[in-house]
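As a warm-up, study this chain.
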Amino acid sequence: MRKVDQDHTRFRDIVRGRIKRDLRKFVTSGEMIGRQGGKAVSIPIPQIQLPRFRYGKNQKQGVGQGEGEEGQPVPGQEPGQGEAGEDPGQHSLEVDVGLDELAQILGEELELPNIEPRGKKAIRTQAGRFTGISRSGPKSLRHFKRTFKEALKRQIASGTYDPDNPVIVPIEEDHRYRFLSTREEPQASAAVIYMMDVSGSMGREQKEIVRIEAFWIDTWLRSQYKNLEVAYIVHDAAAHLVDQHTFFHLRESGGTKISSAYELCLRLIDDRFPAHEWNLYPFHFSDGDNWSSRDTERCVDLLKNGILPKCNQFSYGQVKSAYGSGQFKKDLDGVFRGDDKVVTSDILDRDGILPSIKTFLGKGR
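Now compare it with the structure written out below.
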């Protein structure tokens, strides 16, 4: 078994190295996300499969017998074309990688700091203190004084204690052990609120970029928090709270009123995620178009006086599209310049996903 364990560890190290080397390719591909399970994803790792003979039943005569001249093709097959190659064929092996390990690789490659949580929410945990005494337990937790007292009491009661030669020898029933008393302890919880523009200017590719980036953001945040909840808001001229599938597959058209999403986000925070219990991470993705400068002013007011005082960080990702002006990011950068709680990024294409994730998560808020 020791040899097997060594081989398995070496194989995992090879897989991990391959993922780190091709991380950008895995991040920009949405195929991997579609194969994710509960706590792991399947990643295709190229491998070389050596050729081998396969033996079957001979339906004709003996080997090398029959009509035909040397070099003549087998009946029913056309002569091969081109020269023989010397390179082996490429095949893929799908390897299951845990989301925790994937998050660790992402954090190492992007040099992401661990998040310093605020907010508490009571959930059950095994944390506690050694405040009790038990008759059973591991030798490492044996309580010397309690064990000695029990042995002394037993010897006095049985009349075997000699004051002139006070030798105390504990037996198994005298042993006492420290006992861990568990209790409910507050643990940090986080809520992620994704908002996305689904107006006519946001195409299928823009939504796919948002889907991929959201998966990796979730993967990292779940490695930082034991309790993470996610909510989804879509908006065009009006905003709606939807489930995950609808968020990534809804096709809409029409105008854009960003303030409708921020108003719904603020109501959601007040109703479901009070700031004193939750670490809040609103993410908004859009192509930068808003219906008027007046609505942009309304968005700024909602951020300043409503959302920002209650959240750890507000992140805005602007996905480039052929129809988006990109003005909204310029407005946010102008108003919130120097404010660490507002982070914006430009996502020009799929290659911009990794830099965007580093921008959003690189401050450890």
